[in-house]
Write a structure and sequence with these properties.
It is built from twelve helices and twelve strands. It is of the alpha/beta class. Strand 1 and strand 2 (54-57) form a beta hairpin.
C-alpha cells in the first residue's frame, strides 16, 4: 500500500468525480483509476461504486477513506515534527474561522509567523461552526476559531480566547441611549442583521427570545462587511461583534452603544482535534493562543474615544 493510493482515494471522495480527482492529484485519470484498483485488490474489498460515471464509495470505501485521512494526516504531522526538530517549523498552517471571529485571527498569526517564518498560513474565514468541526475531523484544517458552545466535549482540544460581546451600531442622530440600549429597545429599531443561517445570528436570536421579543430586520446579509455598509447609510442600525469595531473602527457619523438588559456573551476559542500526537502546527498555534490576551485587546475598544 502506498501513500499515493490513499491520496487518490481521499481526493476522489472529496471531488466525487474521477477527472477532477485526477486533476487535483496532478495525474491522468487512467493512472488514478488503476492505482485505486490495485488498492482494492490489496485490501480485497471494493472501494468505489462504478457505473458509466462515478457513483460514490462503497460502504467499505467510506470506512477506508476515514483511515486514509487519518494516516495521511499522521504522515504530514510526522514530517512537520521532524522538520521542526531539524530546522524549525515549515509547511502550511490551515485555520478555519467563523466570520465574527475573523478580526481576532491576526492577534495569533502575527506572533506565529514571527516565531515560525518558514510557515505559510491559510485562513478560511467564511465558515460556519459545523463546517469547521467537520473539516477538523477530516484533517482538512489544523485548527479552528469558533464558538465554544458548539464544540463537543470529547474529541477536541480548546483554548478559550475571549467572550464575544455585541454592540449596536447606529447613526449618531438615531434616538438611541448613549450609555446602553436594551435588547428589547434594539428589536424595535430598523435593523440590518446577519442571516438566520449564521451562528452569530443564532446567538442574537437566543437573547431576543430570552427577553420575549422577535426582531423583524428590514435587511439580512451573510456578510459583516455588507452589514457595515448598510449601517453607514444611517437608515439602519446593526448589531455586530465588538471585535469588528476593533478592526474597522467607527465610520464618521456612527455611534457604538453597548447592549444591556441583559448583558450576554458568547465564548470563542481555538479548537483542534484531541488525537495524539496531533498536528505540530496546531500545538504551536495553541501555545501562542494561551499567551495571547485577546480579551484585554477587545476591552480597549470600549475605552477608545474614537469608538464612541
Amino acid at each position: 500500500m502506498l501513500f499515493r493510493q490513499l491520496e487518490y482515494l481521499v481526493a476522489l471522495s472529496r471531488e466525487r468525480h474521477f477527472a477532477r480527482a485526477a486533476q487535483a492529484c496532478f495525474v491522468s485519470q487512467p493512472a488514478l483509476s488503476e492505482a485505486l484498483r490495485k488498492l482494492e485488490k490489496e485490501l480485497d474489498v471494493p472501494l468505489v461504486r462504478r457505473g458509466r460515471k462515478y457513483e460514490g464509495l462503497t460502504p467499505e470505501g467510506e470506512r477506508i477513506v476515514l483511515w486514509a485521512r487519518r494516516i495521511l494526516a499522521d504522515r504530514d504531522a510526522l514530517k512537520h515534527e521532524v522538520g521542526a526538530l531539524r530546522t524549525g517549523l515549515s509547511g502550511q498552517l490551515r485555520i478555519g474561522v467563523v466570520p465574527t471571529a475573523a478580526p481576532v485571527v491576526p492577534l495569533l498569526t502575527e506572533q506565529f509567523c514571527a516565531e515560525h517564518p518558514l510557515v505559510t498560513v491559510q485562513v478560511a474565514s467564511d465558515l460556519q461552526s459545523g463546517d469547521i468541526l467537520a473539516r477538523l475531523r477530516n484533517f482538512e484544517l489544523d485548527a479552528g476559531i469558533t464558538y465554544l458552545d458548539t464544540v463537543p466535549e470529547s474529541g477536541f482540544r480548546v483554548v478559550p480566547l475571549y467572550r464575544e460581546r455585541y454592540v449596536l451600531l447606529a447613526a449618531a442622530d438615531m434616538p438611541v441611549p448613549v450609555d446602553g440600549v436594551s435588547w428589547s429597545e434594539a428589536s424595535r429599531l430598523p435593523l440590518c442583521l446577519l442571516g438566520p443561517e449564521m451562528q452569530g445570528r443564532r446567538v442574537l436570536d437566543a437573547v431576543f427570545a430570552e427577553v420575549g421579543v422577535q426582531p423583524e430586520p428590514e435587511v439580512e446579509t451573510d456578510s459583516l462587511a455588507s452589514l457595515y455598509a448598510h449601517v453607514r447609510t444611517g437608515r439602519w442600525a446593526g448589531i455586530v461583534p465588538r471585535a469588528w469595531v476593533h478592526v474597522l473602527g467607527l465610520p464618521p457619523g456612527l455611534r457604538m452603544t453597548p447592549l444591556i438588559e441583559p448583558v450576554r456573551t458568547a465564548r470563542v476559542g481555538l479548537v483542534a482535534t484531541a488525537g495524539e500526537p496531533g498536528s505540530v502546527m496546531a500545538r504551536a498555534l495553541a501555545d501562542i493562543a494561551r499567551h495571547t490576551d485577546a480579551e484585554a485587546v477587545l476591552d480597549r475598544v470600549g475605552e477608545d474615544p474614537e469608538h464612541r
